[in-house]
Amino acid sequence: MRLAATALLVLMAGVFVASLRWPDVHPAMPWVQAFAEAAMVGGLADWFAVTALFRHPLGLPIPHTAIIPANKDRIGDSLAAFLKDNFLTPVVVARRLEDVDLAAAAARWLQAERSGAASSSGKRGLGPLLARIIEALDQPAIGDLVRTAATERLRAMALSPVVADAVDATLAKRRHEPLVDAAVNWGLRTLDDQQSSIRAIVSDQTNWLLRLVNVDDRVSSSLIKGLRKLLWEISQDPHHPLRDKLETALATWAFDLRHFPETQAPVEAFKTDLIANPALGQWLNGLWDSARTAMATKLASGSISPGSQLSAALKALGERLEADAPLRAAINLHTRRIAVGLVRDYGDEIVRMVSDTVRSWDARTVTEKLETAVGRDLQFIRINGTLIGGLIGLAIHAIAVLA
């Protein structure tokens, strides 16, 4: 653009010289001369003005030239003050973030299907940002939200059908048999260990006259022997009638849990007591802390493999965020507070860094950066000055001719 502007100025100079050399070659030559002369003046004036911003024209130390290099420190201070007054104030940041729904953006990102490449790019994108937001959130407040949401879901959920389904699934897959076997083996061991206690109980319940003929000892031995035989038969026979009766009783209980309120009441009462137990709240808090730490670590590292449990958990979290407006509002509120707090605590340091950075640049660096940023427009100023100067020259010539 600088070459184009200079070429146009040289062209006007050439036309002006030609109009002086051959003034009578055409009746319109005086008009051409007027245009070229004024265009040269306008182009030279704008060249001087543009050059004076960044350096001394022709290297001459003309006063009030090389304006930007001479005032770079003041420019840096003004830029820093402008940045502080218009951008880095808590009020401005809070106002700008009022309409920014970061939680919704995070929800969409969490729900998006991530291929391996997308997961890798997340390391340089939103993932580390979300990790920092998760780590910086008001953890007690978010933990209370998570705990409240979980307990509300538990309170709204009917526990009896869930227990009934679990019992039916256990019976269908014969998963109760190891428990029955363990209970029978425990009964056998306990029977052997507690023989003396059983004999003492039988003896206490036996008349003194019968004790004289050792009836209590024979009854105790028969009782222990009979119980041991029964337990042994149950342990050896997978189709023992008592096993069948236990399975029937469990299936009946599962049926009653689905259909009879009097059977459901104890289970639902247990659920209510469980929700009211402080230990459940502590467990939910610990669960949230563990999940938050693991999630933040994975997000920060960008190592979220597609199809992994974490990827599924992030998608579920995104769906919950999208559906839960109060949770999104709380996250946005805490995010705004974090941003405002950062500006309040570090705004002056950021502004000082800008000012000190500009001060540390030498004059040539400042000139190159600014001239590169606005250079094309400055050269258009020269081109426009050349053309508009020529038009003004034509207008002046026309006035002189008509007068």
Describe the structure.
With 403 residues, this protein is an all-alpha fold. The chain has a domain of 123 residues. It is rod-shaped. It has 20 helices and no strands. Helix 6 packs antiparallel against helix 18 and helix 12 packs across helix 14.
What's this, in brief?
The chain is mostly helical and 403 residues long.
Secondary-structure blueprint:
Elements: H1 2-21, H2 29-54, H3 67-70, H4 72-86, H5 90-97, H6 102-111, H7 116-122, H8 126-136, H9 139-156, H10 159-172, H11 177-193, H12 195-204, H13 208-212, H14 215-236, H15 241-259, H16 261-276, H17 278-301, H18 309-323, H19 325-360, H20 363-402
- How does the major sheet shape up? none
Number of helices: 20
Residues in β-strands, percent: under 5%
- Estimate the mean pLDDT confidence: 80
Radius of gyration: 45 Å
Number of strands: 0
Task: Please give the share of residues in helix.
Answer: over 70%
Distance between the termini: 39 Å
Low-confidence stretches: 115-124
Q: Shape from CA axes?
A: rod-shaped
